[in-house]
Structure formats: C-alpha cells, structure tokens
Amino acid sequence: MGQYSILLSMSVLMPGTSAGLDFYTGNTMSENSIDMLKQIAGQFKLQGNISNIVPVGSGHIHSTYRVFTDGDHTDDYLLQQLNTHVFQRPDVVMQNISKVTEHIRRTLQAKGTKDARYSTLTVVDRHDGSLTFTDSDQQLWRCFLFIPGQPCVDRATSEDLVYEGGKAYGNFLQLLSNLPTDEIGVTISRFHDLAYRLSLFNQACSNGMPERVSEASWEIAQLKSRTAEMLTIQKLAEEGKIPLRIVHHDTKINNVLFDREGKALCVIDLDTVMPGLVHDDFGDSIRTFTNTGEEDDAELNRVGINLAFYTAYASGFLEATQDMLTDMEKEYLALSARVMTYMQVLRFLTDYLNGDVYYRIHHPGHNLQRSRAQLALLLSMEKHYAQMQRIIRELD
Predict the structure, then answer these.
(1) Domains of the chain (ranges, CATH numbers)
(2) pLDDT of 72-100, one tens digit each?
(3) Which of 145, 156, 282, 381 has its CA 20 to 30 A from that of 266?
C-alpha cells in the first residue's frame, strides 16, 4: 500500500488536501490499489456504495484518502492510515478523539443545535464497533465523515478570518470545559513541557556540535537570559494556581475548517488533544496567526507581530471563553504568546545544535534560520508586550 500513499501532515484535514472541498487533488492510482482501499473502507460503517477513492494532500505523517459514495442522502468519507511511528499509542489517540467529539456533539445538541455533524469531526467506527482496522501489512486505519466546506487556510489573510479562528479555538475549549481531564490520555509525552524542552536545550549546548554552538552563541545567550520569566506560567500551574484543561495543542489556522462565507465550522486535527493549559493553545495561536513573516523567514525585517490580528484573535477567543477562564488565566494570556514562541526557538535551535536530527530541513542551516526568525518574532512581541497586555484587559 505504501507506494500508493500520499504522505500527509498530522492532520485529518490539512492544507492542500481536498478534505472539506468539492474537488480533489492527488496521484493516479491503479485499479488494484483502489480495490484494496475499497476493501479497507468496507470495514467501516459507510452509507451508500463506494464509487471511487482518491489520495489527497501532500504532507508527511499520515496517508489520507477521500472515499466517494453514491446513493440517496449519503456522505463522503475520509479514510486514513495512521503513522504509528509518530503516534505510538494509537488506541489512546482514537479513544481521545472519540470521547472529545462525542462530548462536543452532545453538548451542542443539548444547546439546541439542530445538526451538529459538521461542528466537530465524526469518527466512523467499524461494523464490530471498534475504531480502527489493521490490514494484512499491520497498517492501522481509521475513518471520518467528510466535512464539506472551503479549503483549509495556510495563512491568516484578514482580521475577520483571524477572529473566526480565535472564536473556533475558544469554543473548542469551552465545549470541553466540563469534560474531566482524567478521561483524556496523553498522546505525546511532555509535548509542551517547557522545563523539559529547556533541559534538552541545555544538553545540546553542552554536548552538541561545537562549531554550531559557537555559531549560535548570541541566540543561546538570548534564550538563557529569559529562562526564569518564560517558566512563570508552568510554575503557576504546578502550584495549582492555573487549572489543567483539555486543550488542542496544535492551534494553527490550518486546523480550523471554514465554510464558504468564511465562518469557522469546526476545529480539526485532534491527534494531540490532551490535558494541558489554555495558554498552550492561545500562545501558539498568536505565534502562528499573527506573524507578519514566515516561520523560517530569512529576511528578519519582515518578521513581527501583527497587533491587529492579535486583537482580532483575542477578541474571538475571549468572546467564547469569557465565562470559563479564571482571572489568573486571563492575566497570563499575553505572556503565553511569548512563552510558546520562545519554546519554538528552543526546539529549532536544540535540533540545530544536535545536527538536525528531528525537523526535516531543506538546506544546511535551515534550523538556525528558523530559530532566528522565531527569535525575531519573540523580540517583536517583547517590544509590544505592554500593548498586548492592555488589549487583553480591554477585551475582558
């Protein structure tokens, strides 16, 4: 099966995929490969007859296919092969997704939402009630309802879109606020554990490639000088002053699916949903939604925080979470943007010092370029930090 797969990013519906579209992209497959995929898709409770299956997307973690069906009142589906090298606890991933989506659906129905099918992902189980199928090659498969809508957006282009993104992630947290955190498992250990990331960074500074440690000496000094302040939120959480919540952990704009009018339909890519802090989601959203440059921009003068986008995102997010967040959580929202950007600098630079063993690079020095671009964003946030805090207070 592997030779026919289009490798995707870790999302069910990712940028460049046809998930949520009325058209598809992908490589041509042989009739044999389509027949094999039809057999796999047939393991799940699909309505109608399978008319075609096509690969979609262009990422690098999961393999995803759109399953077309015919017949009256039938839906299309997404069939996905999980990369169990990345997600080594697929049972926990699927249990989490099933619990989270069902909880969201029940909550929306209780609020009077007439059709909640497209307000969250829908897991399609097998005929025996299980959530995954293992093929003869020991590859694991899952299935979701296809959500019609607009293409996933790779980059924020307007304040309205950013506002909708903030509202979508805020609603996601709000809808899960009464689901006990102990019912959701950890899919990636220490994913947003800053103290852990710092320990890896310090090891890389001591044991990494000497010439790279020397080349990045300024960036290393910048990171080390900020350690104490950046650990503030994590320490408050450890002291019980900030609550643990069920959060998304990968809050990019391309993990929000929009309708044709630009309104957010639902949040997607739920593989990393697990207990964490609201600051994990808000902070990383600001890092990714508001950057005026690219994540790896070589022209650092193009990198900075777009305060209009920051205001739009915070407005949508706080509108959805106003009654849920504690005063302490709100107080540190602005700082969380700096913390999550700082953490990403750490991760890129750690990989660079260690010889580029984690992130895929496109040229020598790519991880250092990424580190410098994210550090430029962090410096811009620091420059505008008082404004960022004031915006949160005025929206509260």
Answers:
(1) 2-145 (3.30.200.20), 159-395 (3.90.1200.10)
(2) 767 899 999 987 776 778 999 999 999 99
(3) 381
